[in-house]
Design goal:
Blueprint (H helix, E strand, L loop, with lengths): L1 H17 L18 E5 L5 H4 L6 E2 L4 E5 L4 E6 L2 E6 L1 E2 L10 E3 L14 E11 L2 H8 L5 E3 L4 E7 L6 E11 L15 E5 L3
Parallel strand pairs: 8-11
Antiparallel strand pairs: 1-3, 1-12, 2-10, 3-4, 4-5, 6-7, 7-8, 9-10, 10-11
Length: about 200
């Protein structure tokens, strides 16, 4: 009986140590938002007209994202809030460590037809501002600041009730850019929730 208990305890400790992201901190995964940070994003007023044939649908209205403890993120739209615990990546994906949530099934209570989120957050590293601008050119719904904070949010045309949100911080040789063409600082506001 003692051997069985000992084996079980060893098994549990191995599983606990092997659990992805269990003891990883957000700073180790190059997260963009720190605990308590709130960003509110408004879409470009002319998005609908500019990209009517894009595969996804522009998000109508503003979106608020709040960073909770660890990898928890709260998303508020149309007066209601939904949350997830993002999963920290164990290796870089298209250059970003960060964390993500793949949106399995309909994991949220419906909010104006949205029942799931496919979510990403992390840093994107580039060798030049031009490379970063080229990367942004493939994201018609992205709103970004002059120093490279990017929020790309839209609804999936294929998933009906899917909200897609990517939060990225562009870095060029490890630093925020000084001026990104096409930036809209006025559409992204920041605040910090008191601890």
């Amino acid at each position: 009986m003692i051997r069985v208990c000992l084996r079980f305890l060893i098994f549990l400790s191995i599983v606990k140590c092997a659990s992805p992201g269990e003891s990883v901190s957000p700073s180790e995964r190059e997260m963009v938002l720190t605990e308590g940070t709130i960003i509110t994003i408004s879409p470009l007023p002319h998005q609908q007209a500019l990209y009517p044939t894009s595969g996804d649908i522009p998000f109508v209205g503003s979106l608020e994202i709040r960073a909770g403890s660890g990898f928890r993120r709260y998303y508020t739209w149309d007066g209601e809030t939904r949350w997830v615990d993002l999963e920290p990546r164990n290796k870089r994906w298209y250059g970003s460590f960060g964390a993500y949530y793949p949106g399995p099934g309909s994991h949220w209570k419906p909010n104006h037809g949205i029942t799931r989120g496919v979510l990403d957050e992390g840093q994107m590293h580039f060798n030049s501002v031009e490379d970063a601008q080229n990367w942004l050119s493939d994201m018609p719904y992205a709103i970004y600041t002059h120093d490279g904070l990017v929020v790309d949010f839209r609804k999936s045309s294929g998933g009906g009730g899917t909200l897609l949100v990517d939060v990225w911080q562009i870095l060029v040789h490890g630093h925020r850019p000084e001026m990104m063409k096409g930036s809209h600082d006025e559409l992204i506001s920041f605040s910090k929730k008191p601890a």
